[in-house]
Design a protein that fits this description.
Elements: E1 8-13, E2 16-21, H1 24-34, H2 39-47, H3 53-66, H4 73-77, H5 84-100
Length: 106
């Protein structure tokens, strides 16, 4: 089960719940694949809705690898995501929200 406080989100792929997490390594991978100029640009790209299916696949793939599942984007692209493209987009949004949520003041 995903823990949003740890920056995790859940997605169901091929009928199995998987945890996604954008670790620093996963974020760096995603910046490289998408060619964004840093974390703010990465977040803005998705928040503004200016992303492609390839971008979404890269986001989910990086999140899954950050969550510990070794899967390549090409493999992931052939798998069934619960809810189809809309379900994948919602899962990606949850992942980004969990990753970039403001920290509570200590």
């Amino acid at each position: 089960m995903a823990n949003a406080a740890r920056g995790e989100a859940e997605i169901v792929i091929e009928g199995e719940a998987r945890v996604m997490r954008l670790s620093l390594g996963a974020l760096a991978e995603l910046e490289g694949v998408l060619g964004t100029g840093g974390l703010a640009a990465l977040a803005e790209r998705f928040e503004g809705g200016d992303f492609s299916a390839r971008d979404l696949l890269a986001l989910i793939g990086a999140g899954l690898r950050g969550g510990g599942w070794t899967v390549r984007d090409a493999e992931l692209g052939a798998m069934h995501v619960e809810g189809g493209a809309a379900g994948a987009a919602r899962a990606g949004a949850r992942l980004l929200a969990a990753t970039f949520a403001p920290l509570d003041a200590d």
